[in-house]
Amino acid sequence: MSNKEFTLTDLRRILREAAGEDESVDLDGDILDVEFEELGYESLALLEAGSRIEREFNIRLDDETLTESMTPGSLIKVINAQLAITS
Amino acid sequence: MSVTAVVTGMGVASPNGLGTKEFWSATLNGKSGLGRIQSFNPAPYPARLAGEILGFEARDHLPSRLIPQTDRMTRLALVATEWALADSGVNTADMIESDMGVTTASSSGGFEFGQNELRKLWSLGSEHVSAYQSFAWFYAVNSGQISIRHRMKGPSSVIVSDQAGGLDAIAQARRQIRKGVRLVVSGAVDASICPWGWVAQLAGGRLSTSEDPSTAYLPFDHRASGHVPGEGGAILVMEPAETARERGATIYGEIAGYASTFDPQPGSNREPGLRRAMLSALANAGMRAEDVGVVFADASAIPELDRSEAEAINAVFGRGGVPVTAPKTMTGRLYSGAAPLDIAAALLCLRDGVIPPTVNVAPDTDLGLDLLGPEARAASPRSAMVLARGHGGFNSAMVVRVPE
Fold first, then answer.
1. pLDDT at A63
2. ipTM associated with this complex
C-alpha cells in the first residue's frame, strides 16, 4: 500500500456525499475542533461516512472509533494512524 | 360533545399537478398525468403506463442533509408537508412540541431506496449498503421524517391498509385531536414506480396492460381491465375547530364522519363490507344519505369490484341518487396517497362549488351511477363522501363537510 494520507479535504467530501451538509454550517470553515454534533451530523451520518472511508481507504474502523471521535480533527488522527499500520 | 377536527392546510403532489393550485386547475380541466413510464425503461414489463410526477427535483426543495437518507416518497411527503403547513398559516415554532403529532399512511414503504441498497448488497457486499437503509424504506419513515423536521413530538404513527389507509390515517389523526392534540399532520404520499415496486404491483394482478393512456384506466366502463398506478398524494394539516377559529385560520372543512369495515372471507357469499362502511360513516357524522352532495369513488377498474362499489353506492343513495366522480382517472391509483388526494379534491369541491370530472370513461349504464363525464359540473354540495378500498378486504368511507 502507498503512504496515503487522509486529509480534512477528504473528510469534507465524504461527509457531503454520505450525509449532505447542514445549511447553518460552513463545512469549508475552520471545523477541525468542532464537534460533529454541532456540524449537524448524528451517529448514523457518521456510520455512513465511516463505511465510505473504509471502502475508499481500505481500512477497518471500529464502531467505537466513529462514535468516540467527537471532532473531524480526532477522527482524521485515528484514520491516519490506521493507514500507517496498514501501509 | 366531542371536539370537531378540521382541515386548515393542504399540500398536494399529484401526477397531474405539483402543488394544490396546479393539481386543482389541471383536475377541473380534465388534464391527465398518465403516460409511459419515464423513470425506468418499462419495455420488458407487461404494464408500461403510470401516473408519474415529472419535474420534481428534490434538491430544489429540500436541504442536502435529507437527500442521502430519503426515498422519493419521503421527499415528496416532506415537500407536501411544508406546503400544507404554510397553507395553514400555523406557526409551529410557537407551539408546544408534544402538542403536535404526525399520522400518515403507507402502502409499500420506500421501494426505490430499498431496491438500490439491496442491489448493492448482492452485487457489491454488505459494506456498500447505506446506513440509512436502517429506516429509509420503512412504512413509518414519512411520519418519522416529518416529525423530526418540524419537531412534532406528540402522538405519531403510520397506518398500513393499502389504499384504504389514506382514510384510516386521517381518522386516526381525528382521534388524536379529540384526545387533545392541537395539530396533526396527516394524509399520505406513496411512490414506488421503480422496477422492484413495479414487479410487486404486477404480482397483484390488477394492473392495466394497455399502452394507451386514454383507455388504460376505465373504472365503471364495460372496457375496465385494471388500473394504472401513480405516485404522490396529499398531506393535510388538521386542528380542533375551536383553536383553528381562534387563530383566524381558513378552514377547508370538517372531518365529519368515518368508518372502516373488513370484507367477509372470500367464497362466503356474504356481502362485501363497503356499504356497511358508508352507512356507518354517515351515522358517525350524524348525517343522512341525502345530506351528501357528491361521492368520490374508489374506482378500482376491476369489473367485479366496480360492480360491488356501484351496488353499495346505489344501496345507500338510490340508483343515480348522488353525483359520483373519480378524478383518479387523471392520476392513476396512488395507493395510500389516493384517498388523501380525494379528500383534498373533495374539500376544494366544497369550497369552489364544482365537482371535478371523470375522464375517458364511457359509463356502463347497467351500473346505475350518475358518474361525472369529462367536464367538471357546477354544484354546491355541503358535504362529500370519499371511498377507499385496500387489497385484501379493507373498506373505508369518510364524510367531509363545509365548516359551520
1. 77
2. 0.90
